[in-house]
Amino acid sequence: MQILEASNLTIRRGQRRLIEALNWQVHQGELWCVLGRNGAGKSSLLHALAGLHGIDQGKITLMGRTLSDLSIAELARLRGLMPQQTIDRFSCPVAEAVAIGRAPWRIGTGWQDEKDQSLVHDALHQVGMLDRLTDDVAHLSGGERQRVAFAAMLAQNPKLMLLDEPTAHQDMSQQLLIMRLIRDLAKDHAVIAACHDMNLAARFATHVLLLGEGCYYLGPAQEVMNPAMLSRVFGCAFDYASEQLVAV
Amino acid sequence: MLRSGSSLHLLGWLGAVVLSSVSLSLTCGEGSCSLVSLQEHDLWQLRLSRTMAALAIGALLSLSGALLQLLLRNPLADPYTLGISGGAAVGALLSNFLLPLGLISVGIQFGALLGAVVSILLLFTMARRQLLAPPTLLEAPGVSLILTGVMIAAGFGAITSLLLALSPDTELRGALFWLMGDLDVDGVSYFAWLVLAMAGAWAIWRAPQLNLLAHGEATAYLLGVSVTRLRLQVLFFASIATAAAVSVAGAIGFIGLVVPHICRLVLGNEQRRLIPASMLLGAAALVLADLVARTVVAPIQLPVGVVTALIGVPLFLWILSRRS
Q1: How many domains in chain B?
Q2: Residue B182 lies in a domain
């Protein structure tokens, strides 16, 4: 099932063209990693797909409907975005920071019901934070706060999940936990994650979008992640190292 | 986590605190507390109108403070951050100097309201680009709005100082009293109660969306909130709440800053509890502060703003030291 389609998508920031005439389809069951140099437009692309950043040209359709035709409430049920960083200005228990993900599904102004609570518990269990249920988010480390934001996305459960550097601030074991979770999620969702770690992308992604200066390459991970294409995008040489030490 | 049932329980308790403070305020006067007899009808009227005004203004200032702290995502915001009280002060002083003596008591209130409305219009006009901008994850929220408000406040502050410097000595004392916050009002403050009913009902109705706004504008948008509209509504209701309060009783400080803080510390940031609790605690706090202001050095009456500041400053410093 096709979840997302971008046709002739162009995104500028000031005079700079970040994304140029991008044509892209994302289907259920696919885990896309977006790779590129710093400032290549990975976050801007994710924000545009979420409706947070305007587009300069082209069209984005989500579940067959143009993004601009969907109401804000409909959008909230179809797509979710986990930002690179979450800044909390007010104290808030972890459980409440996750429960906000249920807001698009709560009709009217009702308080959380038991189903919401069990979904919140389940989401926190999946990211290994169930024991921190009542802790204040202001007291969490950067990595823990990101996992709480990820749990909120799990509670929201949108068809399209946009993750901006989901493994940032995470230690090695948590990086693997998150990437495995994302891979499992991609079975009945579509997931697009902006990544920096090429090895994690190569290991878990089904598809890859490489963003270069005014150009892009996309396709199945094995096809796109070759030294020639990576060199063109990142501006440095790539080669296969025969002996890698990897966490399993 | 507190549920709706226990929230009602808690609000019931706060309601009892409000009722107790009202009965204290109605029965206590210079040096003693006793029920006022029917012969002292005027005294009863006087205390009743003061108490009713204090209730409405305390609730309005706390509501405005809670809303602005949320909108600006800044726990240090208060109803006067955006310069509305500055406009009210200039309006009140101008009418004090320009109107004939018989019209002054009504004129000050009207002038203050007019000044507050002018400053609100100025704020909405100057900050319209920020107010209408789509939500974003990239910019620090509220900073440019605060800066615009601070500039408006500074401008009106300068005009206030100029008017005070030019005013004759005979009128200086009254003007200073008003600027420090003065609950010496005639009659019932219908306007303040009407605005309180409107803004309070709106805030409680919109509390679930305000809960999402507390997590940031972009997060609220991603979860289905029309942020641009909500932002304008929050600013509008917080502004008219402040305007209604300052037009009746001048710039009474610290209630709008400290009360939402205390409620947030005790109850958390769930707006469905925080907003009604702030209004109730603000109402009770101002009634009690006014009681202190008119009894502690009776027969001299202190401006109630001085009492709220004298209690508010150490309380706020204590809260800050606990936070750090």
Answers
A1: 1
A2: yes
